[in-house]
Amino acid sequence: MARPKQYNPDTALKNGMETFWHKGFDATSMTNLVDATGLKPGSLYGAFGNKRTFYRKTLEAYAEQMVTQLDEVLTQERPALETLEAFYAFFLNFCVDTPQGCFMVNALFDADIDDQEQLTHIQGLFAQMEQRLKTFFEKAVAEKVPLVSQDPDMLAKIVMTHIYGLRGFAKYRPDQLAALPERLLAMLLCMPTEIHCDPPEK
């Protein structure tokens, strides 16, 4: 009879994710992962593979979690404009709750530019989020939301750049983060009377 596992794989994966998320791939040692998961080296390798493989699994778990949360926001039965407002509110809260930054954004910026395999993997995870946004904007365009573009693909890319920017700014100036989502949302809409522009300096 096979011996039952003496660990919770979901908990071990979560703890490994937290370690990579805070320290980054290069600065995380196998000793760090052993300490975080409570597994002995042999058990860690048996459960998750080497450090690179474990890193990929934690990124995939994080991406799955993000996509699930994104789906919860974007697939609500409500007008598309309200959903867009809810998305920016959700993302603001997420930035506040995770001052260490987005795990995937951190991974993308930390990746070795010559490690094409790693970059391709991370880019593929981001593509899942971008596709969700594109699907949402197809609905928004069909509802005739007054958007700056009628191209769902381009709109999704614009919002992805907002995500990158908000995550970076949250680490740089978290005290000034709250005012940005409303402005970013306004930049997506062709509603000049709703956009509050600061007067030019004299």
Task: Give a description of the structure.
The chain is mostly helical and 202 residues long. The protein has a domain at 56-191: Orthogonal Bundle (Tetracycline Repressor, domain 2). It is built from nine helices and no strands. The longest helix is centred in the middle third of the chain and has 27 residues, at 116-142. It is elongated and about 60 Å long. The model is unreliable at 193-202 (pLDDT under 50).
Notable traits:
202 residues; mainly alpha; Tetracycline Repressor, domain 2; 9 helices; elongated
Task: Based on Cα principal axes, name the global outline.
Answer: elongated
CATH topology of one domain: Tetracycline Repressor, domain 2
Query: What is the CA-based Rg, rounded?
Result: 20 Å
Count up the helices: 9
SS content category = mainly alpha
Beta-strand percentage range: under 5%
Please give the alpha-carbon distance between the first and last residues. 81 Å
Instruction: Specify the CATH homologous superfamily of one domain.
Output: Tetracycline Repressor, domain 2
Number of DSSP E strands: 0
Fraction of helical residues:
55-70%
Topology:
Blueprint: H1 9-23, H2 30-37, H3 41-48, H4 51-74, H5 80-97, H6 103-110, H7 116-142, H8 152-172, H9 180-187
Short description:
Helices cover 68% and strands 0% of the residues. By secondary structure, it is mainly alpha-helical.
